[in-house]
Amino acid sequence: MLRIPAFLFALALSAITAFAAADDPGPGGAYKTDPSHSSFNWSFNHSGLSHYTARFTRVDARLDWKPERPETSALSVTIDPLSVRTDYPWPDKVDFDAEIGGDKTFLAAKPITFVSRAIQITGEKTGTVEGLLTFRGETHPATLDVTFNGSMAKHPMMGVPKIGFSARGSIKRSEWGLDFAIPELGDEVTFAIETQMVPADYAFQ
């Protein structure tokens, strides 16, 4: 008799439940980042040899979601610059994360924020979010290319509505006064965001 391990059965059941839940979309309203299912990675050209890649681990996004008219939604994001993680291999010698996040030559320990000003729908599940990006105390326009991945009225594991997005974008860091080592280190910084969001009043355990 074929025996299916319990964890595989649970995984299959979860997938079936999630598929069914996807047919029942999540409602509009106020949402926030689910940090356990979100990531913010950034990279730039390094000496023409590779794209140096790092991430932020404390990102708080707030979305006033209007599924019937997504272009009327509103997004705001706050990032802690001291949450940068570079995976520098010798932290006992140099606290490279603290240097990148806090040194005045780099992010200067100043909050990073993005506030949307306009949302344009470009496809069935795609759009652009134009807004104002602030870091190092300077504010300039920036644009995100966003894909709406879907929503659920009730997530099978968390039991609350969830929505999910992917986003891509790029900036010229020199426009914010961060011109260290250009052109050896690329001026263009690209970023990739993956996020799931939960109702703004959800209490994480």
UniProtKB/TrEMBL annotation:
<feature type="domain" description="Lipid/polyisoprenoid-binding YceI-like">
    <location>
        <begin position="30"/>
        <end position="198"/>
    </location>
</feature>
<protein>
    <submittedName>
        <fullName>Hypothetical conserved protein</fullName>
    </submittedName>
</protein>
<dbReference type="InterPro" id="IPR007372">
    <property type="entry name" value="Lipid/polyisoprenoid-bd_YceI"/>
</dbReference>
<dbReference type="InterPro" id="IPR036761">
    <property type="entry name" value="TTHA0802/YceI-like_sf"/>
</dbReference>
<dbReference type="Pfam" id="PF04264">
    <property type="entry name" value="YceI"/>
</dbReference>
<feature type="signal peptide">
    <location>
        <begin position="1"/>
        <end position="20"/>
    </location>
</feature>
<keyword id="KW-0732">Signal</keyword>
